[in-house]
Amino acid sequence: MRKLLKKNDGYTLLEVVVSMLVLAIIAAPIGSAFVVSARVNAYADKVFQARLAVSSAAEQLMAEGVEVDTTSGTSTVKNLSNSEKVKATVTNDPIPAGDLYTVTISSTDVETVKVTMQVHGK
Prior knowledge:
Mean pLDDT: 80
Largest sheet: 3 strands, antiparallel
Shape: rod-shaped
Number of strands: 5
Order of helices and strands: HHEEEEE
């Protein structure tokens, strides 16, 4: 009868606390890795959207040609459909023989996303 009363089937409080501490030590780096991964993924999506906007604007200018606005003191492109996401500037006057403009299209969100190309005027 005494043997039945002394039977220990559970865990002590110390064992539970130690196991929770070990679990926390293992889970902390994994949790921070998920946070870093989410941040990197958000930035990669932002760069992708910027590249998409710049390439779309480049294709539009190659298809339609460039219409230049010189009233503001700098030569900017007037016929750009997504002008809130990209900025296009003309870096030279047209080459006289071919009516070619050198245009730099850059993203307004990510400053490292830009393209420079030569495009015919309208």
